[in-house]
Amino acid sequence: KQEVTQIPAALSVPEGENLVLNCSFTDSAIYNLQWFRQDPGKGLTSLLLIQSSQREQTSGRLNASLDKSSGRSTLYIAASQPGDSATYLCAVSGTYKYIFGTGTRLKVLA
Amino acid sequence: GAGVSQSPSNKVTEKGKDVELRCDPISGHTALYWYRQSLGQGLEFLIYFQGNSAPDKSGLPSDRFSAERTGGSVSTLTIQRTQQEDSAVYLCASSPHRGGGATDTQYFGPGTRLTVL
Fold first, then answer.
1. What angle do CA A31, A50, A45 make, to 5 degrees?
2. Coil, strand, or helix at residue B76?
3. Per-residue model confidence as pLDDT tens digits over B9-63
4. Contacts A90 to B, Cβ<8 Å
5. By three-state DSSP, how is residue B84 classified?
6. pLDDT at B33
7. What is the mean pLDDT of chain B?
8. CB count, 10 Å around CB of A95?
9. What is the average pLDDT across A83-108?
10. Residue A91 — φ and ψ, nearest 5°?
11. What's residue A4's pLDDT?
12. In Å, what is the CA distance from A81 to each residue of A35, A48, A110?
């Protein structure tokens, strides 16, 4: 049974700092891995999707990496801003079903 | 274009009552998912619809939960005889699902916050 773990559960950093969020999964037989952002009271917004054949994806200040063999992904956020404050969720997919981690709650202090 | 919409945004009900939650997916998306997010927990998969195929109901927690998708578009999640542990945010997502596995991103609605008193 696939299990997804995110560390840390919460993180508070000063504005401008670079930071890394971690995601690990137990079954390496995945189709893709996706990082989402969730703002309080809102749904999820997709940030980056990495296909199983890829090793990383970049969008603006965000870079996500995937190491299937070790069951790990990282989300790197450069030059963090207060607007980045949110909960970040990673999810891995089998044939069609996504299994989500419990998220990392990020707070960027101005 | 319009995203995934859900209604109501908030629902407060009494224990034992039935509730219906609605999801309008993005037009043309063939795949539709329901998830539940309890306080401090990750998203829990409930049910998956793909085109005219039989839905995957493996995530439904009990037989009090059911869902249907009419005409391949709008979906309704019904919870009968609600219990306090059903209190959560229910999220709906849709995906183009062009085939070959879950290679498409999922687009989420804002969710329905259900509170059972």
1. 105
2. strand
3. 999 999 999 999 999 999 989 899 999 998 877 789 999 998 888 888 989 999 9
4. none
5. helix
6. 93
7. 90
8. 9
9. 91
10. -145, 140
11. 94
12. 18, 18, 8
Residue type present at position A64: A
Q: How far apart are CA B83 and CA B79, in angstroms?
A: 9
For an interface test with B, the pick among A5, A32, A34, A44 (most B C-beta atoms closer than 10 Å) comes out as A44
Across the strands, what pairs with A98? A93
Q: Tally A–B CB contacts below 8 A.
A: 64
Instruction: Tell me the nearest-neighbour CA distance from A80 into chain B, angstroms.
Output: 24
Cβ-nearest to A42 among B41, B42, B110: B110
Structure tokens at B95: 């995906």
Burial B15-24 (b: 16+ CB within 10 A, else e): eeeebebebb
pLDDT for residue A109 is more than 80 = yes
Give the pLDDT confidence score for residue A22 in this predicted structure.
97
What are the phi and psi torsion angles at B14 (to 5°)? -95, 150
Give the integer Cα–Cα distance in Å for B18 and A78: 47
Q: Please state, in angstroms and as integers, the Cα–Cα distance from residue B34 to each residue in B13, B50, B93, B116, following that order.
A: 20, 12, 7, 19
pLDDT at residue B98 in the model: 58
